[in-house]
Each structure stands twice: as structure tokens, then as C-alpha cells.
Amino acid sequence: MDALITQLTSASRTGDLDALNQLIAQGANLNGKDEKGFTPLIIACYNNQPNAAELLIDAGADVNEADFGGNTALMGACFKGYADVANLLIVKGADLDQQHGNGGTALMFAAMFGRNELVKKLLAAGADTTIVDSRGLSVFDLAAQQGNEEAIDILEQAQS
């Protein structure tokens, strides 16, 4: 792995804006991936570093780049429940309906893990409730499997 990618990954994880700015100035590949396929943006978002994420996006990082499993920064933010990061990604044009390797979406992650405020935000931004994963399960099915009645209510209200 490229030394600049290693440094970018580390600075993204900790939100070190000075180091990020230096690495960007040196021409580091903002969409480069580590051994798991994580980009600096995915790392920043997964570690709740919204300022680092914004800096990376504004410098040219692809907001929709996925890791080796097809997971995006938005999916990670929804899995972890980081509303500020998710809001940033939505504003910066993240694909709300991008599917990972098993067909899951950010909305599915939010519903499965009880991130109901994010379910609301994704729906308000236009996330599609009709997508199914590789098993044929919808966001409604996944919320039901987890006993997330609140998400089901939110999803039903969004459809009416």
C-alpha cells in the first residue's frame, strides 16, 4: 500500500485536518484504498470525523466510492448512527440508493440498527423504500426482523 494512503488513512481516522491538508497538497490519491478497500473518506465517516470528511470531499474524494464489500461512507454513517456525517454526505450528493454486495442500502442499515432519525433523514432526502436486497428483503422486512416498530411506522408514514 502506498505510503501516502497509509498517512491519509491515519489522518482521516483521527480527523487531523493539518495532516490531511498537507497530504492533499502533496497529491495523495483521495480515492486510494487500504488493504480492506477503505478509502480515506470511508475511514473518516466511520470514525465520526465530519470535518475531515468534508475536507476530503471538497478536495475531490468520491462520495460514493465503496470498499471491497460494496459499502459506502453513507452506509457506514448509517450503521454507526452518525447523523452529522450522514447529513454531510447527503448534502454532498451521496447516492442514497447505492447497494452493497448483498444489495443493502443506507436506509436498510439505518432501519436494521435502530437509527430512526437517520431513517427519517434518508426518506426526506428521497431514499427508495422499494429496493430489495439479494435475499429479496425490503427495508420493511429488515426493520421487522429487528423488531424496529418505530422504523416501520416511519416508513409507512413516508409512503402515505
Automatic annotation (TrEMBL):
Domain of life of the organism encoding this protein: Bacteria
Keywords: ANK repeat, Repeat
Record has Cell membrane as a keyword: no
Name of the protein in its database record: Ankyrin repeat domain-containing protein
ANK repeats: 6-35, 36-68, 69-101, 102-134
Pfam families: Ank, Ank_2
InterPro entries in UniProt: Ankyrin_rpt, Ankyrin_rpt-contain_sf
PROSITE patterns linked to this entry: ANK_REP_REGION, ANK_REPEAT
